[in-house]
Amino acid sequence: MRLAVFDVGGTAIKHAVMEGAGAPEDLSQLGEVPTPNGLTESQEAFLGVLEGILAQMGPVEGIAFSLPGVIDVERKYLHTGGALMYNYDVDATVWEQRFGLPIEVENDARCSTMAELTVGNLQGVTNGVVLTFGTGIGGGAVVNGEVFKGSHLYAGEASLMYSRMPHKDSPLRDDGAFSTDCSTHGLCRRVADAKGIESCNGREVFALIEQGDTVATDVFRDVCDGIAMQIHNIQCWIDPERICLGGGVSKNPLFVEGVRAAIKRFNAELNYPFPSVEILPCRFFNEANLIGACQHYLHMQRRRAA
Length: 306
Known about the structure:
Layout: E1 2-8, E2 12-19, E3 27-34, H1 43-57, E4 62-67, E5 71-72, E6 77-78, E7 90-91, H2 92-99, E8 103-107, H3 108-119, E9 128-133, E10 137-143, E11 146-148, H4 178-182, H5 184-195, H6 202-210, H7 214-238, E12 242-246, H8 253-268, E13 278-281, H9 288-305
Parallel strand pairs: 1-4, 4-8, 9-12, 12-13
Antiparallel strand pairs: 1-2, 2-3, 5-6, 6-7, 9-10, 10-11
Helix pairs in contact: 3-9, 5-7, 6-7, 7-8
């Protein structure tokens, strides 16, 4: 089967052709174009961009989408579209009619989880979790060998977990949220605030840590402690055997080791024995959603044909 695969993000649309069983080596014609502005552009502009890409791909038999937002995969319905306001309350079967091809759609974080479950570092795991760190914190849960979505399609919305009561009038948006405190963006903001500088990025933060900067190191330790606390809470509900950490920051061994060390510190302070969980980096990073979208497409097409 030859599929067009799209990973739609807030700023860029990654695209590829995937043939065969959806393994990473089956990707070809990888590219990237800007996403039409989610506030000022229309869905027509968005679909026009997709049509232009499809015209260059050659014949395909279907289209697999990784998209932000709350998505009903059975109905192919986008309840929300993240920062892309033109993708709210969208029936993707209308897209099928426009493109003349079968389409499958899935949430981006769950696509990343599907990639790890099928051909990545969650293979063979019965209960597991993916946490992806970037501007926010994406999440996905595997329960009994299947990607778990929940009753309202909110399972895995890690960014929305809180460690303290939210306050709408707080000067810091979503104060108390996991993503605000512990995403890569949150880490950089906290390091910049602590050092009294305007801003910094992830590479700069880890360069400071490697240089022995005590301010950056202390902030990083606090962030890892926050991650360990939420991992503990996830364990209490799902009891996963393995958690995979994704996002660009997870490519740095310092991050993965920092989280592992924080979990040990957390568990050492408990007054009762608590099971350990294996922490690994994800196998896939930039191409995770493309791989997962293809795997989801193949899975759903088999289900619909049964």
